[in-house]
Design brief:
The structure is a homodimer of 362-residue chains. In chain A, 35% of the residues lie in helices and 18% in strands. By secondary structure, chain A is α/β, with parallel strands linked by helices.
Chain lengths: 362, 362
């Protein structure tokens, strides 16, 4: 179904998500021997010049893509974004202090719960009242200058919503950007820390990329457990990193630069999302689940007016080589995850299928 | 230099270490499309039947290899073994409690330091007095029935020492088995928890395998951070695991079963280590650094009597396709890491080189 490899299908998985085919082909070429090392990349020391070069290149590419100044540290940690739900307040939220949390979905709620174990995780706003199908209006946010940081989830994978602009708050922003990292520009000066599990936009599961600004890092607490202290990893390569995952991330970043960087990929992402949303909006058969002003360009969630046809849609789509379109188990319906590496071609095939399915069943 | 792939060299890296060539070839065959999924294994959901099957198979293979009863949970976590240095006392050491630590090297010391942040990490014995070149005599250990657990490092990668038998203590054992896991049998009934970073004997960097016995798990403290609570991961797949690393581990376990399981690999490991140690002992040119009764079958550390020739040895060895023989920067000299996947053939080539080098320089 894919124009390059006939066995590759159109993958709309919410995560781990699809990767650029060029990256996978390059990996294959470098197995079982990487460069001139006599071994695969999985078998070389993380202190070897070859691996150090991979990490340095990944950092340079992120720096270049986002225009990071020297004030930023770039960390590659294991444990997943879920570990950051704990690590962020452990480092920055005093026991008698408070931090603000914007509750826009399941992941935001989980982050909030971990903060509450350490200090006061203060709810600034929530869209739980209508199943998290919108981003709360900033004019109604309960902001406080005492918040040591404000945490938010820039894109909500499950509910198909996304912040359309950077929250305008006085406290440093901490952002879980797992599902839209490097899909659009970031207004860096508002942030203290940005974290992203790699497995949606920038690589495989197994590494979390963390950007942390030096002056924010300096505000962390004392006597932290070594591995959970951001300072440990900002200072040096402390322990064995997830070598292979970082290696893939570096290749994805290279690919991303070839797409025209952030502005290039943003244009493609916008095309993909517009094509899908316009198909949904022009139809009486499909309906979007997120409020229009909060729609995600990464995860397009939709339903059929005839809900009993949804399993048929998903089943037939799979037969047409359109994979992983089932919505998250907590919300049902359909979800097309169209991260950076999902091609416009895949979205066109999906849209054609949607139109055909509507014709046959509408 | 390798009999199968002319570009593969003899890899004695201390970690990440060498992997079975058959595993790497199998990975390559499954790129860019894994099984019938239409995607690579890196791009499928961790909730997909295909990935669930991979994890289940990895658990079954470990269960079979070690003869685990149903009392044991098998976890695959990110973050590295260093995270366990904190996670173990966080779960099991009360603030006003104590745990025993056997200090046999750098990693053991790091684990001890993290325990001391949480409760009392009590030193039971140490071989720091002579550069950690031996395992302290059990008759001199300062044991206490109040220790909620006794922590030890079964193999000390840097110093080339290894516990020759399981510590005989009343408290449940907690073991950092990162560098000899599945290289020899484990007397399971003495343990509460065993952890191992995968990147030496069982896979690539990026996943830590944790075995935890149910009754020990039940003794953990309350109100733990979700991601650091072993109970979270024993109960279910909580968050995205390091999919690709687990996938490789499963293949390495399959390979290990083909080698005759633990008893089969132990025999080969013993052959490899004996060949190297006998070469060292029969020579006036080389000298082992670990006490003979404490020698590791995983990391063979040795020096030249003429220390100024060591850089020449390492340089010439590399030219002969014998890689990563430089000792750890904290001790110098040479180190041949001969984990499970290092072949007897590689060790024979090394021994031949050693004899030739001695002839030319002795």
């Amino acid at each position: 179904m894919n124009s390059i490899d006939p066995n590759r299908l159109h993958n709309f998985s919410a995560g781990p998500g699809t990767l650029p085919l060029a990256v996978l082909e390059s990996v294959c070429e470098e197995l079982p021997v990487f460069a001139q090392t006599g071994s695969s990349v999985m078998e070389i020391s993380h202190r070897s010049p070859e691996y150090i070069q991979i990490e340095a290149s990944a950092r340079e590419r992120i720096t270049s893509l986002l225009g990071l100044s020297q004030d930023w540290h770039i960390l590659f940690l294991g444990g997943g974004a879920s570990m950051q739900f704990h690590q962020v307040p452990l480092n920055f939220l005093p026991h008698d202090g408070q931090a603000g949390y914007l509750l826009t979905g399941s992941w935001a709620k989980k982050a909030h719960a971990e903060a509450d174990q350490i200090g006061k995780g203060r709810m600034i706003a929530s869209s739980a009242d209508s199943g998290f199908n919108y981003i709360p209006d900033p004019s109604l946010w309960d902001l406080s200058s005492d918040d040591v940081y404000v945490h938010y989830t820039s894109n909500n994978t499950i509910y198909g919503t996304q912040f359309q602009s950077t929250p305008d708050v006085d406290s440093p922003l901490v952002c879980d950007a797992s599902s839209d990292f490097l899909s659009r520009p970031i207004e860096l000066d508002r942030y203290g820390l940005i974290y992203a599990g790699a497995q949606k936009n920038i690589g495989p599961a197994g590494v979390t990329v963390i950007l942390i600004r030096d002056d924010f890092l300096d505000t962390r607490k004392n006597s932290l457990p070594t591995m959970l202290d951001y300072g440990t990893h900002a200072a040096k390569c402390f322990n064995t990193p997830p070598v292979f995952a970082v290696y893939i991330v570096e290749k994805v970043l290279d690919w991303l630069q070839d797409q025209g960087g952030i502005s290039g990929i943003q244009k493609i992402n916008h095309q993909k999302a517009s094509l899908l949303y316009s198909t949904i909006d022009q139809s009486e058969f499909y309906k979007g689940t997120a409020e229009k002003t909060s729609r995600s360009e990464m995860n397009v969630t939709f339903r059929l007016h005839q809900e009993d046809l949804e399993p048929v849609f998903i089943h037939e789509a799979a037969k047409h080589g359109l994979l992983a379109l089932k919505g998250h188990r907590s919300v049902g319906g359909m979800r097309a995850s169209i991260y950076n590496a999902c091609t416009l071609d895949s979205v066109k095939v999906l849209v054609d299928f949607m139109k055909d399915f509507e014709k046959r069943n509408g």
